[in-house]
């Protein structure tokens, strides 16, 4: 009886850990197709995000993407921590969930657990992107420039709302410093 209960507890813990590492998009959200990693590579500025602990208090946030020799994607996130007065950065690794033409990836910064990264809207010229995580608590608006035209921003907000994201909770990221 004791071993059975221990096994059940371990199985439940493993299930919860695995569920927390989901990399698939939330129901009803579809990543863009005809995706080109070559065109997506390079530097992106974070225009807005839903709050989460690993970027809390950061301004001037950017993300750089490049292909590694093993086919994975190098992700380098940078931001200025106002509280400490210092730049912070985290390097991660991303892999495609499906085929490389579908903008659905899994990204890891801290070990074996991956999080979802799904481009759900993308400018034809790769000037801006709307990116969802593995649930509706993660959303980013990214752009090649530090600001977006108002009409683009409004269209992305409308699309995010239609996908079930609470856009009233978005943090609009200031970009007043140059990159380190």
UniProtKB/TrEMBL annotation:
<comment type="function">
    <text>Involved in the storage or transport of lipids necessary for membrane maintenance under stressful conditions. Displays a binding preference for lysophospholipids.</text>
</comment>
<keyword id="KW-0449">Lipoprotein</keyword>
<keyword id="KW-0472">Membrane</keyword>
<keyword id="KW-0446">Lipid-binding</keyword>
<dbReference type="InterPro" id="IPR022271">
    <property type="entry name" value="Lipocalin_ApoD"/>
</dbReference>
<dbReference type="InterPro" id="IPR012674">
    <property type="entry name" value="Calycin"/>
</dbReference>
<dbReference type="Pfam" id="PF08212">
    <property type="entry name" value="Lipocalin_2"/>
</dbReference>
<keyword id="KW-0998">Cell outer membrane</keyword>
<feature type="signal peptide">
    <location>
        <begin position="1"/>
        <end position="19"/>
    </location>
</feature>
<dbReference type="InterPro" id="IPR000566">
    <property type="entry name" value="Lipocln_cytosolic_FA-bd_dom"/>
</dbReference>
<dbReference type="InterPro" id="IPR047202">
    <property type="entry name" value="Lipocalin_Blc-like_dom"/>
</dbReference>
<comment type="subunit">
    <text>Homodimer.</text>
</comment>
<keyword id="KW-0732">Signal</keyword>
<comment type="similarity">
    <text>Belongs to the calycin superfamily. Lipocalin family.</text>
</comment>
<feature type="domain" description="Lipocalin/cytosolic fatty-acid binding">
    <location>
        <begin position="37"/>
        <end position="174"/>
    </location>
</feature>
<dbReference type="InterPro" id="IPR002446">
    <property type="entry name" value="Lipocalin_bac"/>
</dbReference>
<dbReference type="InterPro" id="IPR022272">
    <property type="entry name" value="Lipocalin_CS"/>
</dbReference>
<protein>
    <recommendedName>
        <fullName>Outer membrane lipoprotein Blc</fullName>
    </recommendedName>
</protein>
């Amino acid at each position: 009886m004791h071993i059975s209960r221990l096994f059940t507890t371990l199985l439940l813990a493993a299930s919860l850990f695995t569920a927390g590492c989901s990399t698939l998009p939330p129901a009803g959200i579809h990543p863009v197709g005809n995706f080109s990693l070559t065109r997506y590579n390079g530097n992106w500025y974070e225009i807005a995000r839903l709050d989460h602990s690993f970027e809390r208090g950061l301004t001037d946030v950017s993300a750089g993407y490049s292909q590694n020799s093993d086919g994975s994607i190098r992700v380098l996130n940078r931001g200025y921590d106002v509280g400490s007065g210092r730049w912070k950065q985290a390097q991660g690794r991303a892999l495609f969930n499906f085929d490389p033409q579908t903008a659905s990836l899994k990204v890891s910064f801290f070990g074996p657990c991956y999080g979802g990264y799904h481009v759900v809207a993308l400018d034809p010229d790769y000037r801006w992107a709307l990116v969802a995580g593995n649930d509706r608590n993660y959303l980013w608006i990214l752009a090649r420039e530090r600001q977006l035209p108002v009409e683009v921003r409004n269209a992305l907000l409308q699309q995010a709302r239609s996908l079930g994201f609470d856009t009233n909770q978005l943090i609009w990221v200031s970009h007043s410093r140059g990159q380190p």
